[in-house]
Amino acid sequence: MNEESTLWRAARAALALCVVGACAAAPRAQPGREPADALRGMVQAERDFSARSAREGVRDAFLAFLADDGILFRPRPVDGKEFTRSRPSPPVTLTWRPARAAISCMGDLGFTSGPFVARPRDGGEVGHGYYFTIWRKQVDGSWKFVLDVGTTGSPSADSVPDWAPGGELACGTPGGSEDELRRADAGFADAWTHAGPASALAAWGDPRVWLARAGARPTEGVDAAAQVAGREPGRASWTPTAAHVSADGTLGYVYGAYTRSAPNGQHAGNYVRVWRRTAQGWRLLLDVVNARPTPAARAPTADPAPLLAREAGRR
Question: Does the pTM exceed 0.85?
Fold first, then answer.
C-alpha cells in the first residue's frame, strides 16, 4: 500500500510518542518525555526488516516480520502470510528506512514511515515511494507488523533524514475505544464529503497530520494537506473494514475501501487512517490512499508473482 507503478509500493507514517513505564503506571499521559525503549525497539525492528529484505529477499523478510493476523492489500485486504507464502519473491531489491515513528503510551501499538527504493534485478527503472506500516508488540516482546500500505511515484527522498529520538508528539490521552474511533473516522469522512477537505482537516486533523498520495512526498500539517486534498477531483466516500486501538486507547487506526466519482470516471481503492487521542478527542495523524487499477489497466495475462510484497494495491 492502484494509480501507481506495477512492480513496487510500500507501507508506514506519522508521529506520536510517550514513555512505556510512565504511561502504563499512570492513568493519564505525561507529555514532554523522551522516547521509550519500546519506540526504539519498534524502529529497530523496521531497520532489521529492511536489512533482511536486502539480504534474503522480499518474501523471506515479509514472512519473518508479518504478524499471524497481518494483512496486505492485493488489491483488497488479504491474509498477509498466506498470500506471501503462495508466491515467489519478486525480482527486485527492496530497501527502506524509517523517517517517522509513533507509538501508543503503553508501547504496544505503533507505526513507522519513510522512503523506500525498489531496484529491479534486470536493471529496469528504479522505483521510489513511501511506506506506512503499523506494528504491534507480541507476547514474546518482539515486533510484528499488522498492516502495510504505501504510495509510489514520488521523487527520490535521499534528502529526507532518518528517524532520530526527539521532536515526537506528547503522549496521547488514554481511554479511547474502538467504537469511539469508528465514530471519529465516520465524522471526518462526513465532514470531508459535505464541508470539504479543508474543513474536515481543520476540525479533525492533528497539527502535524500527514497526507500521502501517489506521485508526491507526503505533506505535513493541516494547511498543506488541505491544499493537496482540495485538488483531488470528484466526490469521495469511504467504507471502513476494521478499526483497532492500542491497549490504553491512545493510538488507533482504521482501514477500508474508498470510491471517488470524478469527471474522468469512477476510481476505487484502499484507505488507511492513523489517529491519536487527545483531551479534545481523536485527531488524525495520517491519511493515506492507495488507488486500485481499473480493469482496463491490467494485462489479461499478467502474472501476479512479480508483485512487490510492499505493493498495496495492484492485482
Answer: no
